[in-house]
Specification:
Elements (H helix, E strand, L loop, with lengths): L12 H22 L15 H21 L3 H21 L16 E2 L4 E2 L1 H19 L7 H21 L3 H17 L4 H20 L2 H11 L4 H4 L4 H13 L24 H37 L3 H25 L17 H25 L5
Antiparallel strand pairs: 1-2
Helix pairs in contact: 1-2, 1-11, 2-13, 3-4, 4-5, 4-6, 4-12, 4-13, 5-6, 6-7, 6-12, 10-11, 11-12, 11-13, 12-13
């Protein structure tokens, strides 16, 4: 046990099977969502299996990366944490350079790598979880002195915020801010000052919305999506998402029988994949997906708490940061699909189409599994 802490009997098989189930269901739904896309003149040159093949390749590469990641000890990630954060910042700068990142729908968020378009904000989510965990470990003595403990993190978060808003990608910034603030709270920062920092951040988001006509219109459309002024404009995606859920009823229209995916619901394979699940698999399918993400998030947090109980603070806080990422992003995406939250360009983790997203999702899950493996090794009297 001491010499080989990564043996199969020490791995969380339930977590692996839930992740496999979500990825597999996501692949099926991506295929269903995109099979009719070649009928659109914009995608006329694509084969019906174009997105299925690309997503399958991305999943294959992600699995290989996850297996490699599983072999790396957490002590190595702790050492690399600041550098991974710096690399993510450099990539966020690189994507804004004209000629490097392609402009899609007015946004620069991707770096072309041939086999996939890599989105640096996905790496930044993992980078901020690692950096915040490392920072809180190094600043344990300053937790009660709020400004001394939080100022460097606030500066780092501000830099990331400026870069992401320049793309623009406010949704990713919201997730990254939630990860950073969550780790600060879980790391033991003074409660009153933490609430003050949350209030400041919420105020900043309100100001960004207030001074942006585009974002302001989105809020109005969210509040009154069926208004004729918005139904064919800013709330077009939301209204068709709600129609998809309505058509699905309890048991759905059947796999592949969606009408909304036939060029009515934009981005059905990315941001609005849950709406397609609702239409084809009904309330039952949606509830299964929600329960799976709830269980996954709860399990990740349990592994993080277990690591902290074993005096592995960095591993525990980083793992809980990943839990905030998975659970928080899933919650926002589901809220947007169901009309509970304003429309925001965030995908459903592990399920939506996107190479860099599935890559970083599976790498992050592999890190969580490695933390769990080392926890089990310690509890059996071995070494992490």
């Amino acid at each position: 046990t001491t010499a080989r802490p990564t043996r199969v009997h020490g791995i969380d098989r339930a977590l692996i099977w839930v992740v496999i189930a979500l990825v597999a269901l996501g692949l099926v739904m991506v295929y269903s969502a995109t099979i009719a896309m070649p009928d659109n003149p914009r995608f006329a040159r694509y084969a019906p299996t174009h997105f299925l093949v690309r997503q399958s390749i991305a999943i294959g590469l992600a699995v290989i990366a996850a297996v490699i990641t599983l072999q790396l000890p957490i002590s190595l990630w702790e050492k690399w944490a600041p550098w991974i954060f710096v690399v993510s910042l450099l990539l966020l700068i690189l994507v804004l350079i004209p000629g490097v990142g392609p402009k899609v729908n007015g946004a620069r968020r991707w770096i072309p790598l041939g086999v996939m378009q890599f989105q640096p904000s996905e790496l930044a989510k993992l980078g901020i979880a690692m950096y915040a965990a490392s920072y809180m470990l190094r600043k344990m003595d300053a937790r009660e002195r709020f400004f001394r403990a939080v100022t460097p993190m606030a500066v780092a978060l501000g830099v990331i915020g400026l870069l992401l808003l320049a793309e623009p990608d406010m949704g990713a910034f919201m997730v990254i801010a939630a990860i950073a603030l969550g780790i600060l709270f879980l790391g033991g920062v003074n409660g009153r000052m933490f609430l003050l920092s949350v209030a400041v951040l919420v105020g900043a988001f309100v100001l960004m919305i207030a001074f942006s006509e585009f974002r302001r219109q989105r809020i109005f459309a969210y509040l009154d999506p069926w208004n004729p002024d918005y139904a064919q404009g800013k709330s077009y995606q939301l209204t068709h998402s709600l129609i998809a859920f309505g058509r699905g009823e309890i048991f759905g229209q059947g796999l592949g029988a969606s009408i909304e995916k036939l060029h009515y619901l934009p981005e059905a394979h990315t941001d609005f994949l849950l709406a397609l699940v609702g239409e084809e698999l009904g309330l039952v399918g949606v509830v299964v997906v929600i329960c799976a993400f709830f269980w996954l998030t709860r399990r990740i947090f349990h592994i993080g708490r277990q690591a902290i109980a074993l005096d592995r603070v960095f591993a525990g806080l980083m793992t809980q940061g990943i839990g905030i990422w998975m659970g928080g992003q899933a919650f926002i995406n589901m809220g947007v699909n169901l009309g509970l939250l304003p429309t925001k360009g965030l995908t459903l983790p592990l399920m939506s189409y996107g190479g860099s997203a599935i890559l970083m999702n599976l790498v992050s899950i592999a890190i969580v599994l490695r933390v769990d493996i080392e926890n089990r090794a310690l509890m059996r009297g071995g070494r992490a």
